[in-house]
UniProtKB/TrEMBL annotation:
<feature type="domain" description="Stress-response A/B barrel">
    <location>
        <begin position="35"/>
        <end position="130"/>
    </location>
</feature>
<dbReference type="Pfam" id="PF07876">
    <property type="entry name" value="Dabb"/>
</dbReference>
<dbReference type="InterPro" id="IPR006311">
    <property type="entry name" value="TAT_signal"/>
</dbReference>
<dbReference type="InterPro" id="IPR013097">
    <property type="entry name" value="Dabb"/>
</dbReference>
<protein>
    <submittedName>
        <fullName>Stress responsive A/B Barrel Domain</fullName>
    </submittedName>
</protein>
<dbReference type="InterPro" id="IPR011008">
    <property type="entry name" value="Dimeric_a/b-barrel"/>
</dbReference>
Length: 137
């Protein structure tokens, strides 16, 4: 079996498995909602260039999880307004077709390895998840 077709088969098998055991299977409208996962990482030593580089390395590896549609890795922008939070080290935002694909991401070996290999670098993470229609307007 070709690598791409094998990967697609495994991805579809994972979706089918999760859909069959997930309470979301009873809520088909949830499968149609775009899912955005936004994580803010706070490094233990925010001024350590090696730790920053190591976390960036890990985030780039994490971006290879196949259910991710789009990834943005960022650092605080140089903006100054009272509502802007700039105390984090890195921002990780990724888009999924739906919540089921995000659930696959949460248990994917690449994600689990990322946590195992890089979690010693951060003192905390803050996560914002949101859902909404795929198209606005």
């Amino acid at each position: 079996m070709e690598d791409k077709s094998r990967r697609k088969f495994l991805q579809n098998a994972g979706l089918a498995t999760i859909a069959s055991i997930s309470p979301l299977a009873a809520e088909p409208e949830k499968v149609k909602e775009l899912f955005i996962h936004h994580v803010y990482f706070y490094l233990k030593d925010p001024h350590n260039a090696q730790d920053e580089a190591k976390l960036l390395e890990g985030l780039n590896k994490l971006a290879k999880v196949p259910t991710i549609q789009y990834v943005h890795i960022g650092k605080p922008a140089e903006t100054n307004r009272s509502v802007i939070v700039r105390d984090y080290s890195y921002s990780w935002m990724c888009f999924f077709k739906n919540i089921i694909e995000e659930e696959i991401y949460q248990t994917h070996p690449i994600h689990l390895e990322f946590i195992k290999e890089y979690s010693h670098l951060w003192e905390k993470v803050v996560v914002y998840d949101s859902v909404g229609p795929k198209k606005v307007g």
